[in-house]
Specification:
The structure holds 2 protein chains of 2 kinds.
Chain A lengths: L4 H9 L6 E5 L3 H4 L10 E5 L3 E4 L22 E7 L2 H9 L5 E5 L2 E3 L4 E2 L14 H7 L3 E4 L11 E2 L14 E3 L3 E6 L2 E7 L5 H6 L5 E2 L11
Parallel strand pairs in A: 1-2, 1-5, 5-8, 6-9, 8-10, 12-13
Antiparallel strand pairs in A: 2-3, 3-4, 6-7, 10-11, 11-12
Chain B lengths: L10 H4 L8 E4 L9 H10 L4 E4 L11 H5 L3 E6 L6 H8 L4 E4 L2 H12 L4 E4 L13 E4 L2 E7 L3 E7 L2 E2 L5 E2 L8 H6 L1 E8 L1 E2 L19 E4 L14
Parallel strand pairs in B: 1-2, 1-8, 2-3, 3-4, 8-11, 9-12, 11-13
Antiparallel strand pairs in B: 5-7, 6-7, 9-10
The chains are: A alpha/beta, B alpha/beta.
Enzyme class (chain B): transferase
Catalytic activity (chain B): 3-oxoadipate + succinyl-CoA = 3-oxoadipyl-CoA + succinate
EC number (chain B): 2.8.3.6
């Protein structure tokens, strides 16, 4: 079975470490916050200028001046700080964020990512994604392995305009967890019940399959 | 206006001198911390052919979206314009030009503009459409793009509290692009929720020092919420 959105978030949350500053993109990446292991302290960075994002507010604490990068109303946790957009991207560009998790349309074997623009369709803008991929050392892309029509999104070369070049080293899809190194995807883990053959058939870029590919486990 | 008293009595006075064809820098992220009354005053004035520099361009019927409705904007420099159907229509019909700019680069362009730095190098956008036509230079083996800074004829800013000297503090994440825009306007106009007595603001806690600010006005704000999200 392919992973659900929740399972994808759960798997990525295992890459967190105590004391990490983490930026979570919009969509499935946001769900990762729900699976931070108990006893582990993580500060979530929101690029509109908040470090230490807390849970959504109650009706009573709802505040129009307190939002996250997805423009949702949020709260600040104890230990949070709030700052300008320039300060926020200084942290991001300066490599101070320990882990960045974001979605994508395509990634390729060179570590290129395309996530913001489909030519011919309405272009809404890149927001902070280009700064995030350029500034972060440690990025995990979360996406489905193939499109609804079965077209692979793990390519030998991205077909869409890039968000960043040579910046992605790790990808979690609904079928597999992969690393990118030396011009190839390396299959590290597979979703429960998903065969190596299925992953091979849905990966267009060069894929290295080790002798043993463990299954992910979920409670 | 006398000495360091930057208070003005009306929105008309706050935007006196804004003319067709000018560049306006606006603070705000989404609808959070936008100078909503100053935007409405631009609508009332009917100033046209404006270049607007802002992270987003409001929504239909609110924020900078009202200036799109009146076709007062000819060019937008922004990082994300996805919340606005009218914007899409004007873009596709060629009525409006848009320069999509990475959010961190946009913030830094304003910061640098206000700080007298004409350009800077960033890794953001290397190898992407953003790099087209821009100088690239290598530092320590990595390529960087040269990005030019931005200044405006006017900066329109939303603060929380100010004193008559023009010292401003922002509230929560309504800060965002506001202090950056404030530094980069030839004329910087700040609208706030409250003008406090001199001495009421702690000098060490000022976000925008009064030197950047030309005009201060007190307003009332709708503060519309774009994504109202509460916990169950």
């Amino acid at each position: 079975m392919a992973l659900t959105r929740e399972q994808m978030a759960q798997r990525v949350a295992r890459e967190m470490q105590d004391g990490f500053y983490v930026n979570l993109g919009i969509g499935i990446p946001t769900l990762v916050a729900n699976y931070i292991p108990d006893g582990m302290e993580v500060m979530l960075q929101s690029e509109n200028g908040l470090l230490g994002m807390g849970p959504f507010p109650t009706e009573e604490t709802l505040d129009a001046d307190m939002i996250n990068a997805g423009k949702q109303t949020v709260t600040a946790r104890i230990g949070a700080s709030i700052f300008s957009s320039a300060e926020s991207f200084a942290m991001i560009r300066g490599g101070h964020v320990d882990l960045t998790v974001l979605g994508a349309f395509e990634v390729d074997v060179q570590g290129n990512i395309a996530s913001w623009m489909i030519p011919g369709k309405m272009v809404k803008g890149m927001g902070g994604a280009m700064d995030l991929v350029a500034g972060a050392e440690n990025i995990i892309v979360i996406m489905t392995h193939a499109s609804k029509d079965g077209e692979s999104k793990l390519l030998s070369q991205c077909s869409l305009p890039l968000t960043g070049a040579h910046c992605i080293k790790r990808v979690l899809t609904d079928l597999a967890y992969l690393e990118i190194d030396n011009g190839a995807f390396i299959l590290k883990e597979r979703a429960p019940g998903v065969s190596v053959e299925e992953i091979v058939s849905k990966t267009a870029g060069k894929l290295i399959v080790p002798d043993h590919v463990p299954e992910m486990h979920f409670q | 206006m006398a000495g360091f008293d930057k208070r003005v009595a009306s929105y008309e006075e706050a935007l006196a001198g804004l003319e067709d064809g000018m560049t306006v820098l606006a603070g705000g992220f989404g609808l959070c911390g936008i100078p909503e009354n100053l935007i409405n005053e631009i609508k009332r004035k009917g100033t046209r052919d404006l270049t607007v520099v802002s992270n987003n361009c409001g929504v239909d019927g609110f924020g900078l979206g009202v200036l799109l409705e009146e076709k007062q904007i000819s060019k937008v420099i922004a990082s994300y314009v996805g919340e606005n159907a009218l914007f899409e229509k004007q873009l596709l019909s060629g009525e409006i030009e848009v320069v999509l700019t990475p959010q961190g680069t946009l913030a830094e362009k304003m910061r640098a503009g206000g700080a007298g730095i004409p350009a800077f190098f960033t890794a953001t956008g290397v190898g992407t459409p953003v790099a087209e036509g821009k100088e690239t230079r290598e530092f320590n083996g990595r390529p960087y793009l040269m990005e030019e800074s931005i200044t405006g004829d006017f900066a329109i800013v939303k603060g929380w509290k100010a004193d008559h000297f023009g010292n401003v503090i922002y509230r929560h994440t309504a800060q965002n692009f506001n202090p950056l825009a404030a530094t980069a306007g030839k004329i910087t106009v700040v609208e706030v929720e409250e003008i406090v007595e001199p001495g009421a603001l702690d000098p060490a806690q000022i976000h925008t020092p009064g030197i950047y600010v030309d005009r201060i006005i007190c307003g009332t704000f709708e503060k519309r919420i774009e994504q109202r999200t509460v916990r169950k």
